[in-house]
Amino acid sequence: MSKKILMITGDFVEDYEVMVPFQSLLMVGHQVDAVCPGKASGDFVRTAVHDFEGDQTYSEKPGHNFTLNATFSEVKVAGYDALVLPGGRAPEYLRLNEDVLQMVRHFFEESKPVAAICHGLQILATAGVLEGRGCTAYPAVGPELKLAGAEYVDIDVASAHVQGNLVSAPAWPAHPQWLSKFLCLLGTKIEL
């Protein structure tokens, strides 16, 4: 059965972390509404490509323009079955938006599936929904998660972690596990 999924994103979201889940979830038959505060359907957000090239942290390069297909101000979260929060630099300012935080809290209050990756967990930490919850993120976000009362789970960059309704992952190399585990939470059956 098709699910209606909300994806909250913003300028300088990580390119793969918005494009790959958006397209993959559409591919298996789900509806995905990608929104950004202050923007409408048909507007775009700029993306950034983060890569792991042997430096002490990831490198950043310009990515694509990602076109939004829904209008943030029209979102009614009660009508959505699940939430996706990509990473990149967008979460550091999205977490300052009280409407975003209220939307996120709804998914946890209703125990709806949530998939957050990389820096996307900064939004969850600010929303106050991680107390006592095991989760993972990009390692530099780990201290924020601990301060928010989460149990930070240090796993391989290609792995994902599930606890309750939340599936989290460190970065885009985890897409196969992260998306697979999210599809399980959604109850998605793929027939070949």
How is the topology of this model organized?
Layout (H helix, E strand, L loop, with lengths): L3 E5 L4 E2 H13 L3 E5 L8 E8 L7 E9 L14 E4 L4 H5 L3 H12 L4 E4 L3 H7 L6 E2 L6 H6 L3 E2 L8 E3 L2 E4 L5 H12 L6
Parallel strand pairs: 1-3, 1-6, 2-4, 6-7, 7-11, 8-9
Antiparallel strand pairs: 4-5, 10-11
Helix pairs in contact: 3-4
Under the CATH scheme, which architecture would be assigned?
3-Layer(aba) Sandwich
Question: What's the end-to-end separation, in Å?
Answer: 16 Å
Broad structural category: alpha/beta
Q: How big a fraction of the residues is strand? A: 25-35%
The CATH superfamily is known as Class I glutamine amidotransferase (GATase) domain
Question: What can be said about the biggest beta sheet?
Answer: 6 strands, mixed
Output the CATH topology.
Answer: Rossmann fold
Main traits of this protein?
192 residues; alpha/beta; Rossmann fold; 6-stranded mixed sheet; 3-stranded mixed sheet; 6 helices; 25% strand; globular
